[in-house]
Amino acid sequence: MKFTPQLDAQGNYFWLVEMRCHQRLLMAEGYTLKEAIENGLKLVEEMAIQAARRKFPAL
């Protein structure tokens, strides 16, 4: 995981979280570090749900 503070066009800070999972780059952002991490975890959760649905179509 990589955490990077960024500036938007209006000069406000936001956090960018980059994660690699099964050769995929997942990126999430948020105005606070906590929000960015939570958004990143939601991406990982969604990726796991999709993988489970592919493996077990009856779910």
Automatic annotation (TrEMBL):
SUPFAM superfamilies: YegP-like (SSF160113). It comes from the Bacteria. InterPro entries: YegP-like_sf. This is DUF1508 domain-containing protein. The lineage of its organism: Bacteria, Pseudomonadati, Pseudomonadota, Gammaproteobacteria, Oceanospirillales.
